[in-house]
Amino acid sequence: MSCAYMRLNHFYVAVQACDEIIRMTDLSAESFFRRSQARTYNLKSNYSELELAETDIRTAIEKKPEEKKYKNHLEILMKRKEEKLEEDKKFVREMAEYARRSLELKKQKEITVNATLLEMPREVKIMRTIKEKYADCMEFFRDTDDNKQVLLTVEEFNKFSKTSYQKMMRYYNFNPANIEPQLLEALPEETRELLSDEAIVQEINSLKVKEALMLFGEGFINFDLFKYATELVFKEEKKRKKALEKKQKDMAGLKEKTPSTSYGKMAVYGFVVSILMYVLWNWMMHKFFWRDREENMFGRKPGF
């Protein structure tokens, strides 16, 4: 089952399938091997996930040391780890240096730095929606046993993912304040110093969005899916805008009604309190003041 998920590029689901098999029986070397494969071939795996993949394949080798495909996979994985570390180091180093130069340029031009991102850019929403629709298409064709369309969809999705989506999302998802410890340790001292500067971190957060949006549409995008995803995003934005306007309108109406309503309630409360005070005052006068006068005048207590 994990192999089928990997062919559909559902690597995280493949890992979950292997997790379930390993949970039921820890004797399956093949399950550790397949889980290692799922993490290795997932291009979105970070360095920590690749280390988990190494742990899995070494466990599989311990269980079946004579299996050649396990050892071959370990070699592939170690090369992938090395390439991933170098790739991430280069990316972080370039982003930190880019931010430093950008800040210097802004200071020269006296431009105010404002890296606050309030909402996900529309282009990123569209790309994420396209990715989700590819997954829906693959699930649909798989459920209808249309293997030809499944393979065509997987091939097209791989092209879209490698040329557009992954490059764009790598910039957008990069968090300079949360870099993996192994990667941070491997970075040059100069880069680590830049990343410790709050201004540099803010500038990176601004630049990464800019770079991600520049990659929008550069690679392969299925026009029909792009059109459909764009319509969905605009529809969602329109729905949110309508809900926000309704909320603001309701709040404005509430503010207009509040003064008159408050004055009316205050008048009622004042009237009720006045009556209660009047009753209480009469009772106290009758209870204490008039009783004393009656005792003095008639030499007896009142009949209450």
Notes on the structure:
- Helices cover 81% and strands 0% of the residues.
- It is an all-alpha fold and 304 residues long.
- The longest helix is centred in the C-terminal third of the chain and has 76 residues, at 223-298.
- The N and C termini lie far apart (93 Å).
- Residues 300-304 have low confidence and may be disordered.
Please render the helix and strand layout as text:
Layout: H1 2-7, H2 11-24, H3 29-41, H4 47-63, H5 68-109, H6 122-143, H7 147-173, H8 181-186, H9 189-195, H10 198-214, H11 223-298
Helix pairs in contact: 2-3, 3-4, 4-5, 5-10, 6-7, 6-11, 7-10
List keywords for this structure.
0% strand; 11 helices; disordered C terminus; mainly alpha; 304 residues
- The sequence of SSEs as H and E is HHHHHHHHHHH
How many helical stretches?
A: 11
- Report the β-strand fraction as a percent range: under 5%
Q: Which bin fits the share of residues in helices?
A: over 70%
Largest sheet: none
What is the molecular shape? extended
Helix-strand category? mainly alpha
Number of E-type strands? 0
Cα-atom radius of gyration: 35 Å
Q: Short description, anyone?
A:
The protein is built from eleven helices and no strands.
